[in-house]
Amino acid sequence: MSNLVPLMLVPLIVWVAVWAYLYTLDGKVKRLEALAAKGDSGTEEDR
Amino acid sequence: MINSIHKIVKVLLLPLGCAVIAAGFLWLLPAKGFMNPALARIVVFHVPCSIVGLVATTVATWFSIAYLWKRRLSDDIKAFASFSWSLLFWILTTVTGSVFSKAQWGAYWSWDIKQGSILLLLMVFVAYFALRAAISDRRKAATIGAVYAIFALLAVPYLTLILPNSTPDTLHPKGTLEGGLDTRYNTVLWLDFLTVTLVYVWGFRLQVAIAEAGERLTARRRVPGGATVRVETMERRPLEEGAS
Predict the structure, then answer these.
(1) Smallest Cα–Cα separation from B93: which of B191, B193, B16?
(2) Residue B213: its chain A contacts at CB < 8 A?
(3) d(CA B242, CA B209)
(4) Fewest CB atoms within 10 A around its CB: which of A12, B133, B203, B207?
């Protein structure tokens, strides 16, 4: 079983990296959506 | 309220994934009857990837049909996103299947009928992206991509279920989910299925949100003199709904 610990670290590190990427992207998407929504509301004001 | 639940689920996904990986490697007992019993545990990661790949393909085809029906670009964006994720899960299925193949048959690739059919399936999926990339017109690419996606869904059950089961001359084990695994294996397998499904849903929503916001911003840039146009068939979503 102890032989499997180093092997287990590979998917574990990959998983933490994937999760961190998705979590960071989540924040960026919120900002992008806010930017797009701001532009859309500008469209209505222009009218 | 819904945003808070989404946030809690996303945060809990990290320990859930870590627990599933740790359980898969340390809690499961080595599988008997394999050349490499320790490595055969990868079945608990292989099967969920293939199931979620099938689900993602079905979702992609659903949105493709919806696009052909209503011609909304938002449906095409969702179909493309789900197709991208299904390709990723089919690749993961192939890779984990190769490791399982090494554990059971001593070679990563044996040209078994199951391996040959998954290779064909990957080609069908890659062709979808090549086809779309070859068409510059946005609407045309969406329409042709949607028609192709429907044929791709028809290929999935044929290549993953009918063809490999048409002959007894296959190395791939059968009946894995019908009593072929013990309680520990079943527990880890279904927890992994939950994790992979949540990752798919999260990634799919993110990709759709990025593409939709990008479409809106690009459409505004196309008009000279300012931000005064809205994408023709894209319905506006409230910020609260999209920001979850």
Answers:
(1) B193
(2) 29, 32-33, 35-36
(3) 7
(4) B133
* Residue B23 maps to a domain: yes
Identity of residue B80: F
Cβ contact (<8 Å) for B206 and A1? no
- How does pLDDT run across B99-109, given as a tens digit for each residue? 888 877 778 88
Residue B206: the pLDDT is 93
> Is A19 touching B (CB cutoff 8 A)?
yes
Report the number of distinct structural domains present in chain B: 1
Is the pTM higher than 0.90? The answer reads no
Asked, for residue B28, whether it belongs to a domain, the answer is yes
- Write out chain A residues lying below 8 Å of B229, CB-based: 43
Query: How far does B80 lie from chain A, in Å, by closest CA?
Result: 18
In a domain, B39, yes or no: yes
pLDDT score of B60: 94
* Structure ipTM over 0.90, yes or no: no
Backbone φ, ψ for residue B111 (5° rounding) = 55, 35
Question: What does R_g of chain A's alpha carbons equal in angstroms?
Answer: 21
In three state form, how does the secondary structure of B83-124 look? HHHHHHHHHHHHHHHHHHHHHHHCCCCCCCHHHHHHHHHHHH
CA dist., res. B43 & res. B108, Å (int): 14
Q: Which residues of B93-123 are buried (b: 16+ CB within 10 A; e: fewer)?
A: bbebbbbbbbbbeeeeebebbbbebbeebbe
Nearest-neighbour CA in chain B from A21: distance (Å): 10
Q: Is residue B175 part of a domain?
A: no
